[in-house]
Amino acid sequence: MNSTIYNSELNDFSRKFLVKSPAVPAPSPYEFIAQRRVIDASLFESFLLFDTLSFKVHGENIPLVILLNHFGVKGVEALLDQNALKFILWDQMLGHMVDDIDGIDPLTHGHYNSPAHSDPEESIRLGFNWMSKPPRTSDKKNLIRKIIDVYSMPEKNLSSKAVALSKSAYDSGKLEVYGLSPEKSTYRELDLDGRKMLCECAEEILQYTHLIDSNMSSYSNFEFYQIFNDSNRKIHEAANLQENFNELSKLENIPDLNQMFPDDSKPFDKVLKLRNKSSSKKFRSWLAECTNSEDSLEITKEYVDAIANSKGFFQTKMGRFTKNVAMSAVGVGVGLLVAGPAGAVGGAGAAKLLEPAADFGLDMLDEFVLSGLTKGWTPKIFFDDLTKLEKFNESKHSGAENCAGV
């Protein structure tokens, strides 16, 4: 089961901290550093828990620049080969009327048509301009060619649909909890504060509708969740999946992925290697299926059952036959190796002398060469890998402290 998560936070971070606007005060360096660590830790977690991350892009693809800084050109190409990256070029626009004009719809809608907002290739190309050390020309061409294939655009009339849904929600009284009551004011007679609130609601409906249409999940905390269809669990599966994973982390006595995010030693290089392991792919699929099942609230039981009921290749009918044949062949081979040419022609006496050596060789081979086939995959393998990563990070920190002490 493939799991895709929608990420708008990286784009929001890019526009807030990297794009300077004369009308908006520049954030403090401390706020930038703190928020960047939150964003990086979230990326670290998401790339390990989800098969595909779909990034919202507004104009220049600055999120791609951040990913290139983390993974490098080869790393981003590897993620593309893993089908781990997608980009949504967000051209939808919503606004509200500032002046009080009777009879006019309080919301406006449309879409951006500049090249940066409407042309995927231009969006990528302009994104490279934000890099202090842009990739080589050949690398740029290869990246553009590959990334264009994973670009998409929202439905053309999505913003119009969001306005219509907002009006319907207002007229039906679903927005009363937010102070927008049709009994106090008609839709077209809302004051400025009411129009602002309605526009915020419409913005969320806009993204929510896109998620439903694209069958994606999201970490986003929708403020106006109550007006949406509660039966659509897919949108909020990401939060449930994360919660389930954290429950298993407690069971295995390791930190959750946000806490595990290391401060040094190229954490995203480790993400790239770990997420591509076959055991990690199976874990992501297993976790998504458990989260999507009726037993999703009993994740601990699912985990224990998966471990207890695992069956390796050698435990299957074909596996038992294969093992018998393999072990027989290995036994003959070990005997010949120990005895030399004489062992092959020495008759029953020579073979009898070689039995202990052959048995020893067979035990060692079964233990060290074929042990991986004796047990089936379990979700615990993923946590074993995380434990190794945690110990590696601890050793790096310990080494740094020792060096500082010296």
Task: Quickly describe the structure.
The chain has helices spanning 9-17, 29-49, 62-81, 115-118, 120-128, 137-148, 158-171, 192-214, 237-251, 257-260, 267-275, 278-292, 299-308, 317-339, 341-345, 347-368, 380-405; strands at 4-7, 52-57, 85-89, 92-96, 107-111, 151-152, 217-218. With 406 residues, the chain is an alpha/beta fold. α3 links the parallel β2 (52-57) and β3.
List the helices and strands and how they pair.
Elements: E1 4-7, H1 9-17, H2 29-49, E2 52-57, H3 62-81, E3 85-89, E4 92-96, E5 107-111, H4 115-118, H5 120-128, H6 137-148, E6 151-152, H7 158-171, H8 192-214, E7 217-218, H9 237-251, H10 257-260, H11 267-275, H12 278-292, H13 299-308, H14 317-339, H15 341-345, H16 347-368, H17 380-405
Parallel strand pairs: 1-2, 1-7, 2-3, 3-6
Antiparallel strand pairs: 4-5
Helix pairs in contact: 1-2, 2-11, 5-6, 7-8, 9-12, 14-16
Provide the descriptors you would attach to this structure in a database record.
406 residues; alpha/beta; 3 domains; five-stranded parallel sheet; two-stranded antiparallel ribbon; 17 helices; 7 strands; 59% helix; globular; disordered C terminus
